[in-house]
Amino acid sequence: MSMRYPRNPALFWFVPLSPCILTLTLLLTACSDGARAPVASASHTPSREPVPTPVTGPAAEGPVHNLFVVTPVLYSGSGPTGDAAFDQLAQLGIRTIISVDGAVPDIERATAHGMRYVHVPVGYNGLAPEQQRTLARALRDLPGPVFVHCHHGVHRGPTAAAVASVLLGTLDNETATAFLRAAGTAPSYTGLYACVAEARPAPPEVLDAAPADFPAIAIVSGMVRTMVAIDLAYDHLKTIRAAGWRVPADHPDLVPVAEAGRLADLLRVFLDDPDAKGQSTEFLEMLRASAAAATTLERELLGNAQVDVLNAAFTRVADSCRNCHAVYRD
Fold first, then answer.
1. Rounded Cα distance, 152 and 154, in Å
2. Of 64, 143, 161, 228, which is the most exposed, with the fewest CB atoms less than 10 Å away?
3. CB 207, CB 48: distance < 8 Å
4. Cis peptide before 145 (omega within 30 of 0)
5. In terms of Cα–Cα distance, which of 10, 77, 84 is closest to 48?
6. Torsion of CA 25, 28, 29, 32, to 10 degrees
7. What does the angle CA 15 – CA 19 – CA 24 come to, to the nearest 5 degrees?
8. 237-275: burial string, b at 16+ Cβ within 10 Å, e else
9. CA 175, CA 107: separation in Å to the nearest integer?
10. If you ran DSSP here, which 8-state letter would residue 215 be given?
């Protein structure tokens, strides 16, 4: 017997995987004869079921955090780390993992657990149209169930899952936006919410034209390009600070929390870059300090901290960068 959609899919959506839901999911998977799980196509009618009250309590206990059922064949959550996390995904029957994080995916563990990886890194300002179509085609064409993740599973991952579902016609915009709220995506990430609100179902021929190579590891920029991107994000934050930590009137594209998130992400991912790992221990310690300072700034922005707190957090970012540059660049 193959896995079937529940008669009322809305009952399953936007709910962190509690033990009862996990048990039901495992029972459905166990009843499967091993055939490929159904993957939604763009010809399906979007859900018009009433959106249930989002469950915003803590995610189910387990190595994968912020784990949500988006649709009966699509999950989102944090990046899996270690065998226990991949074991958890395997118990759910996951066959394809899509990472929208910048970090290099753990291909070895995924393969060992019978899963394939697709790597489509996206930013905090939103997903480019080509990225949206690529994600939707991957969800449509690759074996399911599919698990989409970013780093923490709160902002970019849920957005990618929601946008792809809208393009495929399995979620409407209202339902997809409700899922973002349930997943904890911060309203401050206006670009992510805009992507979901503006997405539209894509005809099959549009998705057919999207890239179908689905790389397991996306081509990452070298050390020089990464440093250029870091410098640009830092300069954007200086402009935002001068505007009182609001969106600058002359730069409406600069969303404070998105730029802080981008800087934190660039620094964190850079720690795993082979070029960075080849540097001295002192360099790596300084890089970790910069990543931690940028992450703190992002967290303060998400918490709507006062200007003086944000200024102090940014000063720590600036000091960490200045200390590193004094030794390794200046």
1. 6
2. 228
3. no
4. yes
5. 10
6. -170
7. 80
8. beebbeeebeebeeeeebbbbbbbbbbbbbbbbbeebee
9. 32
10. -
With beta carbons less than 8 A apart as the criterion, state whether 192 and 245 touch.
Answer: no
pTM summary value? 0.67
Q: Rounded CA gap, 195 and 180, in Å?
A: 11
* Residue of 163, 153, 160 lying closest to 85 (CA atoms): 153
Place of tokens 């999911």: 25
Tell me, rounded to whole angstroms, the distance of Cα 162 from its chain centroid: 11
305-314 contacts: CB < 8 A, separation 24 or more?
307/244, 307/245, 310/241, 310/245, 311/241, 314/237, 314/241
pLDDT in 10s for each residue of the chain, 330 residues = 333 333 333 334 454 554 444 444 443 343 333 333 333 343 444 444 433 333 233 445 678 888 998 888 999 999 998 999 999 999 999 999 999 987 789 999 999 999 999 999 888 888 999 999 999 999 999 999 999 999 889 999 999 999 999 999 999 999 999 999 989 998 888 889 999 999 999 999 999 999 999 999 887 666 666 776 888 888 899 999 999 999 999 888 889 998 999 899 888 888 887 777 778 888 888 889 999 999 999 999 999 999 999 999 999 998 888 787 677 654
- The answer to whether 43 touches 204, Cβ cutoff 8 Å, is yes
> Closest by alpha carbon to 258, among 160, 196, 187?
187
Cα separation, 276 vs 88, whole angstroms: 32
Cα–Cα distance for residue pair 255/263, rounded to 1 Å: 12
DSSP secondary structure, 220-260, as one string: PP-HHHHHHHHHHHHHHHHHHHHTTSS--TT-TT--HHHHH
Stretch (H or E) spanning 96 = strand 96-99
Question: Taking the mean position of all CA atoms in its chain, how far away is CA 249?
Answer: 28
